[in-house]
Amino acid sequence: MLLGPSLALSAILFSLGVAGVLLRRNAIVLFMCIELMLNAVNLTFVALAQLHGASGYVMVFFVMTVAAAEAAVGLAIIIGIFRHKQSVDLGNINLLRG
Amino acid sequence: MTSLVWLTVALPLVGFLVNGALALRRPGAKDLVSYVGVGVLLGAFAVALGVFVQLWLHPPHTPIIVDLWRWLPVGSLQIDFALQVDQLSAVMLLVITGVGSLIHLFSVGYMKSDPGYARYFAYLNLFVAFMLVLVLGSSFPVMFIGWEGVGLCSYLLIGFWFSDKVNADAGKKAFIVNRIGDFGFMIAMFLIWQHLGTLTFTGMVERAPAVFSPGTGVVTAITLFLFLGCTGKSAQIPLYTWLPDAMAGPTPVSALIHAATMVTAGVYLVARTNVLFSLAPLSSMVVAGIGALTALFAATIALRQYDIKKVLAYSTVSQLGYMFIAVGTGAYASGVFHLVTHAFFKALLFLGAGSVIHAMHHAYHATHSHADAQDMRNMGGLKQHLPVTFWLMLLATLAIAGVPPFSGFFSKDEILAAAFARAGDHPIYYLFYAMGVVAALLTAFYMARLITMTFLGENRTGEQERVHLHDAPLVMTGPLVVLGVLSVIGGFINLPPFFGGGAWLEHWLEPVTEPAARFFGLEMPHGQTELFLVGGAVLVGVLGLYAGYRATLRRRTPTAAEAPDDTGLARVLNRKYYVDEIYDAVLVRPLIWFSRIVLWKGVDQRVVDGAGVNGSARLSRGLGWLGSRLQTGQVGMYVVLFLVGALWILHTMVR
Amino acid sequence: MTEVVFYIFAAAAVLSATLCILQKSPMASALWLVSTMFSLAAIYVLLNAQFIAAIQVLVYAGAIMVLFLFVIMLLNLGHAESDLRGPSSVAATLVIVGLLSIELLALTHYSPRRLASELSQWPTYTDPATAFVAGQITQQEGAAHGVVMAVAAPLFQVYLIPFEITSILLLAAIVGAVVLAKRNV
Lengths: 98, 655, 185
Known about the structure:
Distance between the termini of chain A: 52 Å
Number of helices of chain A: 3
Oligomer: heterotrimer
Strand order of the largest sheet of chain B: 1-2
């Protein structure tokens, strides 16, 4: 039963993902860090599926599906932005300034 | 008939509405206005007479309450708009409607050529309506409506010719000084409600003796506050200063409001609340003391006034002081007696003065002179030109001086006798008695001075003007005659036993004054003491008249234009002890300074505008600016905010 | 034995993730992320979720990351001079991540026994074997019919409706991606 260590690993990976989101300026790399976070969450689900049954696996299934959809749409948006600004630097995306 | 007593209020009110409408639409319809204005008063007098007769035939032991409608039901406080018909209010009713009718009639002639004729009668009718509400009210709040209403009408009528700033200022002064008194009245009302739980007069009579023990602080406070209201409305020290200025209004107004009716409201109030005053001997002493002081003080000022109406104004203040001496000693019936006789002779004096002024105006108008038509130094020898007015004013002077058998003698003598009698309990009343006697002497003096300067001696009006001086038309002299008769025989309504009379008024008012008699009964002097007192009063009156006559006739009075200014004591008296100037410096200016500098600049501009209004706007903008700093448009920042929020949620859930 | 293997793969995953977030080139970051996913797949196997491991490799590493690589190469991003945000970001990162890891690591104290005791109604009843029935059922299913069946049975029975909705979600995503990315012709 590897519950404890699995959860710890999940926590570390999630934190790394958050750090990446905060540190990187490239939008695509930002997305990849978000994927990293999602992976960490998947690990948690799988680890707990040993206790709570198959619903854990089903959750993982759905998370992956949604991650795929989100990645597709997000990257499409980034491509759109790149067409306008010729860069994916986060500092340049500030048209919503109030 | 008593159930129709509301007609006495309703008729003048209708008169006000009709005349007011005419004033706005057809000011030229003077005949219609005359008929309506005088007619409603005569109608009200007829109803009053009916009410009186009914009371006389079937004297009630408890007041008859005529409930009109439910006015203020507020929790445990139920105030109905109801009128109270009892012996006291019946007397007041007759005086107001009777003398009022005569004055309305006089006004028809006096105000004939005035463009504001309709407006005048509208205001005068409204005044009578409010005055009747005041005396007929069955509870403090209803009385207060009348109290305030007559103050309003007084303001409107004093400032009738408001295009002259002096008149408008006089009106404002009257109203504002009255407000100070009204404040006292209201505080007293609150205290009465708090302690007695009722605001009706019958309730007060019922509960006050049980709730208040004599001489305690609460009832003394209540009565002193009520008396503050009286000093305002009835022009006693310290709130009398508006009355002389009120002479700026038309003379019939001075006769009605500032002699016969409105100023007597204070005396009526004390008589009505006699149960409270009888439970507070200290307050009664204050009332009598202020009355005595005012009587003396005003009489001294009248000695050196040259405007005929000002002399009469200070005379009114002085006579009101007498009435307060009476109610202050517990002789409530005597106070009402003097109120009635004073209404007769003072109204006569004012209307007579009005007749004189009318003639003088006419004369000066004909010769386009700008001399003062009211200054006695411009008169003299008018006996030849205005004989009717002269003889009638002479009768009134004899009455006010207290010469028997005229009305003023009986009422004034009774007041002084009461003061003397009360002195047995509290020696200070001897002082009040002495002050009253001196004031009587001065009263006779200045009245004789007035008559002499105006009617006797040689005429100073001028060669051309003299031709135009003539007596007033019948519509004006008729009421004078009626008032003259009343001034002569009016004393017989309360002839004391000493003279073989039955003291009718006193017995008539007994059901009303009975609650006071329990705590504050008075043993009137009789036998030899009474003889001395009566003799003294007569002596003083006759002496004063003679002295005034001789002193005025002795030296040649210059006309107003060439008269040198007074010096020394005479100057102080003429300038009325500079009281107005003192008030202005001590009260008015500091108040204005305070309002302008502290309240306006300080509070209103800095606190309310600056901190409150502008400050909260600035705060909103500041918060908004802070909020706008979040909207950078930078995705990176938004992500950070996301994570902070998620962290927070996680934190609360882990707990 | 399994623990040793677990720790090896765990270290690999952490290392890959760290390099992923620190690389300058986006391409390198993507490849390190792929490495992380492989390590995670291995760990899934160790956790008795073989089917999930397979899907992880097939879908995540095989489809999604390939998509990322396509986009990176399409946009021709190359090396950036400095891809890290300013020092304020670093400070914010340290604070947030610090707090986050503390919170999360607090969760690691959960052992099955403790979880069971928190979940069960009766305070004395803390045997995870009897508290968590569902887990046992899954394992038995897996042993009897195979891991795929263990996942498929609830997926198509209990969670049928979410499954169908997810397919609609995918449809929306496809349409959205096409619309967003196409040129205005």
